[in-house]
Amino acid sequence: MSLGFSEKLERSARRIQFKITPEILKDRLDLRNELIFTIDPVDAKDFDDAVSLTRTPSDNFLLGVHIADVSHFVPPGSDIDREALSRGTSIYLVDRVIPMLPEHLSNELCSLQPGVPKLTYSCLMEIDQQGNVISYQIKPSVIQSKKRFSYEEAQGIIDQAGAKDEFARTLKEMRDFSQKLRKIRLQQGSIDFETPEVRFVMDESGKPIEIIPIERLQSHELIEEFMLMANKTVAKHIDNIAVKEKKLPFIYRIHERPDVEKVSKFENFLQALGHPVKIPQEVTPKQFQEIMNRVLGTKDDVLIKEVALRTMMKANYSTQNIGHFGLAFRDYTHFTSPIRRYPDLAVHRLLKEYSHDHQQERSKAFKINLKKICEQSSDRERVALEAERESIKIKQVEWISDHLGETFNGLISGVTAYGIFIEIIPYLIEGFIRIEDLSDDYYLFDEKTYSLIGKENGRVFRLGNEVTIQVKNVNTELNQIDFILASETTDEIA
């Protein structure tokens, strides 16, 4: 796959124009006067989701999630559509984005820029104080975003007592409501897999000069909860409109129960860290969450969350609705990011199809086509995630190559017969200490306790131990980092 688009495709995209006309407004909700805005990363160029929140006369919340209507501009089977499907998703590398759609669409025509009328698909949900969706409306719309916030800007207003900003009241109400939704979701068994992340500051040549841990803000959680609620509501809507009790073909975001063997290994891992837990083979989301709550809150948090994530099956797309284990949702889809995910674009098309009198005979063709879309999108998502991880690793290695001989604090993140893996906190950089570089003793590997044990002095290098390392060698071609111990925190055998 080429990083850029062909000139022919770029020309096709640039020919697509948009103007508000009575014909366009005829079947759309006109929400241009509503208080709607976007909250995105500070460096975002495409804004595909906007939010609104008001109170109803019965003191319920009316939550609006307004998503860029890419389906209006990209007909199925067009050259742009075929290219978008082949890409499946945008890829967010450290120093660039490989977009799913040409820039004229992703950054201009479809992007929900402030002060400009934009076509959207809105999911309007009336939600009571217990987090139940009382009623909803899912319909094409037109909005005019009143403001483009970064997460940090929104959080600053939320945190500021007596803020004079015209959006302060709405933002704070959104924060309070989203925290309520989050609490309810977690109480119902949804698992919080939020792991630490970093961002890079780079010079003009693209060389990383600083690594900064990303702080998880309430504004992040605000958008996350609202998007989850919209995705869940859209998936439930498809069940609600089943034709003659026959489910309509659809794309679901599914997440299977973790493999029994992986669960057993995770249990052994936790026990090796000193957590005496027992995980049922047929573990439920609620049980898994309760175990995670018991073992988190220690210095091992980062390691535990990383291994917990690897224990889980990978979420993917399917026409079979088997639910989402990690979220503990019976119904879930992806509706909220059609600029960067093809399944979301397909979901928008399905919603439009099913909003009219759907002919049952069309369902057979839909099923075949949707199965292909699910397989292609799941495959491209895996490729994208691997590319994004590799991009981060490359920049981490590049950054630490300027720090040869320097010392850092870290945790033992893995133990093998050949040496120990160390993760530098908070930069999340992993390197390796070779067994031959542990020269003070002859070390034996204890697989059961994830430990290296000195034969003569009884020293133990155990998973989760804090150590101080020195950067010995960096191979930027192989993305490998070698450490040696500068000093170590070890435990004697009990």
Number of helices: 12
Q: Beta fraction of the residues?
A: 15-25%
Structural class: alpha+beta
* Major sheet strand order: 1-8-7-4-3
* Residue windows where pLDDT falls under 50 for at least 5 positions: 488-494
Q: Report the principal-axis shape.
A: globular
- Mean pLDDT equals 93
Number of domains: 3
Distance between the termini: 56 Å
- Largest sheet, if any? 5 strands, mixed
Number of E-type strands: 22
- Rg calculated over all Cα atoms: 25 Å
- Helix amount: 25-40%
**How would you name the oligomeric state of the polypeptide chains in this document?**
single chain
Strand-helix topology:
Elements: H1 7-15, H2 22-25, E1 29-31, E2 38-40, E3 49-55, E4 61-68, H3 79-87, E5 91-92, E6 97-98, H4 103-109, E7 117-127, E8 133-144, E9 148-150, H5 151-159, H6 168-187, E10 198-202, E11 208-213, H7 218-240, E12 252-254, H8 260-272, H9 285-295, H10 301-311, E13 316-318, H11 342-354, H12 360-400, E14 407-416, E15 419-424, E16 429-434, E17 443-446, E18 451-454, E19 459-462, E20 466-475, E21 480-488, E22 491-492
Parallel strand pairs: 1-8, 2-9
Antiparallel strand pairs: 3-4, 4-7, 5-6, 7-8, 10-11, 12-13, 14-15, 14-20, 15-16, 17-18, 18-19, 19-22, 20-21
Helix pairs in contact: 5-6, 6-7, 8-10
List the defining traits of the structure above.
494 residues, alpha+beta, OB fold (Dihydrolipoamide Acetyltransferase, E2P), 3 domains, five-stranded mixed sheet, five-stranded antiparallel sheet, 12 helices, 25% strand, disordered C terminus
